[in-house]
Design brief:
By secondary structure, this protein is an alpha+beta fold. It is built from 13 helices and 18 strands. The chain has a six-stranded mixed β-sheet with strand order 1-2-6-3-7-17, sandwiched between helices. A four-stranded antiparallel β-sheet has the order 11-13-9-14.
Length: about 475
C-alpha cells in the first residue's frame, strides 16, 4: 500500500473547507450538548434516544453515507437491549481503503449542579473554551467526525472513493455493555482497514497526541461485615471491631507509604516517558499547594505504566445521620487502573487475594459487580499510523507526541479481536484542562479546530491511497 501526501493545493482546499465549516460544527455541538443523554436507567432514556436521532440526522445531512441507522444490540447474559447507537456506512470504490470512525454520544451525569459555573447542559463559551457536559467527552469527537467528512466531501465531491463507516456508541460511559455484541451483529458493516477512536486527549492545547498505550481497568464492589447487627459504641466500643474500622484498616494496605500500589501481583510496564514536571501536574490536576504527588518513578510512568487503585464510592451512615453506633457493614467500590501488558482479570485476582489475605479482625468480605477491561498497546509501524502523524502535524502545525493514557478504553480489545488486521488509531479532542467527567467540563476551541483539520487531512490522504 502506498501512503501519499496530497499536493499543496488539495491540502489547502481541505483546510479552507474545515475553517469555513467550524461555525456550523460548533453550532451542531452546542445542539448536542443541550441533550442530556445519559445511559444509566435512572435517567430519562428518551433523552438518549433524542441524542442518537440528532447524531443520525447530522450523518444523513452530510450526503456521504449510503445508509444511516439507529441500532441496538442485546446485552449478553441478560434479556436487555443496549442503548441506541448510530451506524452510518458508505462502500469504498476504486480500490480505496475503508476507515471506521468511532465516538460516543452518551455522557456522564453532571453531578452537583452547584459546582458548575454555568448550567451543565447549556453550552457556554468563555475564554476560548466551550463549557458543558459532553462538550469534550465525547460529543466533540462526534462532531469532529461529521465536520471532517463535510470538509472532505466538499473538496473531493464525486472523487471521494474512500469507504467510511461511522459508529457512534450510546453507552460508553455506562460500560459499553452491548459493544461486543454490536460488533458481532454488524461485523461486515464495520469492517475497515483503519479505525479512528476519537475518545482520548492531547499533550496540551496546542500539541496533538496519538495515544499508543492505555491502562486497563478492574472495578468491583466490596462489602465488609463484622457484626450481624448494629451495636451501641459506648457499650461495646474498644472490644468489638466495627465495619468502618475494619474497612479503613483494610483499605490502607493497598498502598505503601509513598502512595504507590502495594498489591503483590499487580505489575508495571517498563517504558520511557517524555519530560513532565511536577509543576505541570499541579496545574493540570489541581493539586492543593500543600498536597504532594504520590508514587515513585517519573510522573508519567506512574500515570501511564503503573497500576493505580482508587476508592470511588462508599455506602455508610451520612454525616447528617451519624449516631454513636458500631456499624455492622460498609460497602465500597474500588476502581483499579491496570498497567498495559497485564489483563484486567489478572489484576482483579491479585486485588481479591490481597484483600482477603489482609482482612483485619476476621472481617467477612463479599465481592460483587466485577467489571474488567484490558489495556492496549498500539503497533506504531503501520502505514495508517504514519499517515495520521503527518495529518496531525499539518493540522496542528506542531509535530504530535506519542502518548500513554492513564485511563482505559476497554472496548478496544473487542475491536482488536473482531478486526485483527485493522490499524487502531486513538485520537481525541481533549486537552489536559478539559475536566472530562468533572464539573465545568470544557472543550478548547482551537484544539477542536485543529483536530477537525487533522482528521479531514487524514481522510483526504487516505482517499489518495491505493490498497
Amino acid at each position: 500500500m502506498t501512503s501519499p501526501v496530497l499536493p499543496p493545493e488539495p491540502d489547502a482546499a481541505v483546510l479552507e473547507a474545515v475553517a469555513t465549516g467550524i461555525p456550523a460544527a460548533l453550532s451542531d455541538l452546542g445542539h448536542l450538548v443541550r441533550i442530556p443523554g445519559m445511559a444509566w436507567p435512572a435517567f430519562d432514556q428518551t433523552q438518549l434516544e433524542r441524542s442518537a436521532a440528532a447524531v443520525a440526522s447530522l450523518a444523513e445531512a452530510t450526503g456521504v453515507f449510503d445508509e444511516v441507522r439507529v441500532l441496538r444490540s442485546a446485552i449478553p447474559g441478560t434479556d436487555e437491549q443496549g442503548q441506541p447507537a448510530v451506524l452510518a456506512t458508505r462502500a469504498a470504490r476504486n480500490g480505496k481503503p475503508t476507515i471506521l470512525l468511532y465516538a460516543h454520544h452518551d455522557v456522564q451525569p453532571p453531578g452537583d449542579d452547584a459546582l458548575w459555573e454555568t448550567p451543565p447542559f447549556e453550552p457556554t463559551v468563555r475564554d476560548g473554551r466551550l463549557y458543558g457536559r459532553g462538550a469534550a467527552d465525547d460529543k466533540a469527537g462526534v462532531v469532529a467526525h461529521i465536520a471532517s467528512i463535510r470538509a472532505v466531501s466538499e473538496v473531493l465531491g464525486d472523487d471521494l472513493d474512500l469507504g467510511i463507516a461511522m459508529f457512534i456508541e450510546g453507552e460508553e460511559e455506562y460500560g459499553s455493555r452491548s459493544f461486543a455484541q454490536f460488533l458481532s451483529d454488524n461485523k461486515e458493516a464495520l469492517r475497515a482497514d483503519a479505525i479512528v477512536v476519537a475518545d482520548s486527549g492531547n499533550w496540551d492545547s496546542v500539541t496533538p497526541g496519538l495515544t499508543v498505550s492505555l491502562r486497563g481497568n478492574a472495578r468491583f464492589t466490596l462489602r465488609v461485615r463484622t457484626l450481624d447487627h448494629a451495636s451501641h459504641s459506648g457499650m461495646f466500643g474498644g472490644a468489638v471491631p466495627d465495619a468502618m474500622m475494619a474497612t479503613v484498616t483494610l483499605l490502607a494496605t493497598l498502598w505503601d507509604e509513598d502512595g504507590a500500589v502495594a498489591v503483590e501481583g499487580m505489575t508495571a510496564r517498563d517504558a520511557a516517558t517524555p519530560d513532565y514536571t511536577e509543576a505541570t501536574l499541579r496545574d493540570e490536576a489541581g493539586l492543593l499547594p500543600a498536597t504532594t504527588p504520590i508514587g515513585n518513578g517519573t510522573i508519567l510512568s506512574r500515570i501511564w505504566n503503573k497500576p493505580a487503585v482508587t476508592v470511588i464510592g462508599i455506602d455508610s451512615t451520612t454525616v447528617a445521620a451519624a449516631s454513636n453506633t458500631l456499624l455492622p457493614e460498609v460497602t465500597v467500590v474500588i476502581s483499579a487502573r491496570v498497567a498495559p501488558g497485564q489483563t484486567g482479570q489478572e489484576a482483579y485476582e491479585a486485588l481479591e487475594a490481597h484483600l482477603r489475605a489482609h482482612a483485619p479482625f476476621g472481617a467477612e468480605l463479599t465481592f460483587s459487580d466485577v467489571d474488567l477491561g484490558d489495556g492496549f498497546l498500539v503497533d506504531t509501524s503501520g502505514w495508517a499510523v504514519a499517515l495520521t502523524r503527518d495529518a496531525m502535524r499539518d493540522g496542528y502545525g506542531v509535530a504530535p507526541v506519542d502518548l500513554g493514557v492513564g485511563g482505559s478504553i476497554p472496548f478496544i480489545a473487542d475491536l482488536v479481536r473482531e478486526f485483527p488486521a485493522a490499524q487502531i488509531l486513538v485520537t481525541g479532542v481533549e486537552d489536559p484542562h478539559s475536566r472530562a467527567h468533572s464539573p465545568n467540563e470544557s472543550l478548547h476551541l482551537d484544539t477542536f479546530r485543529h483536530a477537525v483539520a487533522s482528521e479531514a487531512l487524514l481522510l483526504a490522504r487516505m482517499n489518495a491511497t491505493e490498497l
